[in-house]
Amino acid sequence: xxxxxxxxxxxxxxxxxxxxxxxxxxxxxxxxxxxxxxxxxxxxxxxxxxxxxxxxxxxxxxxxxxxxxxxxxxxxxxxxxxxxxxxxxxxxxxxxxxxxxxxxxxxxxxxx
Length: 112
What we know:
By secondary structure, the protein is an all-beta fold. The protein contains no helices and 11 strands.
């Protein structure tokens, strides 16, 4: 059984940085990737970044490419999302996700 627990998000001014983490348990080869999604008020949930099991491949949405970096420490069972040059449009609830139906509880990121 997969469990995902995100760290507390936060509030930051535009141009600032924030790092999210997601502690996982139960991840196996049946979950070939793990990633971050976000949902802004009034919008659909969207994929932000995904990383494959051993970090051999990553995917970023166009809106965050070059600003966000996804990484994972398999020894610590932890996923990270380093967010730099934050914009107001990055404000959303961020979710950790593992295939195919596992979600964290979500953490609020507010950029003003």
